[in-house]
Amino acid sequence: AQSVTQPDIHITVSEGASLELRCNYSYGATPYLFWYVQSPGQGLQLLLKYFSGDTLVQGIKGFEAEFKRSQSSFNLRKPSVHWSDAAEYFCAVGAPMYSGGGADGLTFGKGTHLIIQP
Amino acid sequence: DGGITQSPKYLFRKEGQNVTLSCEQNLNHDAMYWYRQDPGQGLRLIYYSQIVNDFQKGDIAEGYSVSREKKESFPLTVTSAQKNPTAFYLCASSKRTGDGNSPLHFGNGTRLTVT
Fold this sequence. Notes:
Chain A is mainly beta.
């Protein structure tokens, strides 16, 4: 079965600074990878996804993520954060059920809470 | 616009009472899910449904029940048997389940408080 680790529970970044949120996964083949964002008291919104092809994927709100097979990572980046980016960010891995995927096909990390300093 | 509607946003109940959380989607998705979210624990799957009149237990189904009588609706009942029901509950849907590459679409959640 696949697993996801988000090593940072909290990250604090100054407004206008660059951001990188880490995500490491464990899976025997190339997984499907996702990043979701959750604002306080809201549901999760899909930021971007990687299925195959170009390892650098662009998402909404100016976010991008890079898949690095050698490091089993899918880190999320943004060149300049805005106060509105303060939220919880979840990395998720998808795998078909026939190869050990979860019932919903997605396994979520425990999230990284992003705090933006003025 | 298509989406998922969860109601109510906040729900308060006394211990020992069953309570039902509503989830409706107009995305024409086959699969629907219920998650529970507690601080620092990420999302935990309670139940999921791949098709009308069928549903399966997730990782933490004890004390919960669901039904899927219509494609659009997947209500969750939190029963008095659930020992720690106070949490944030999220409903989600996807075009299909089991292949790992269908993104989930989430509702805005229901915060349940049981005292």
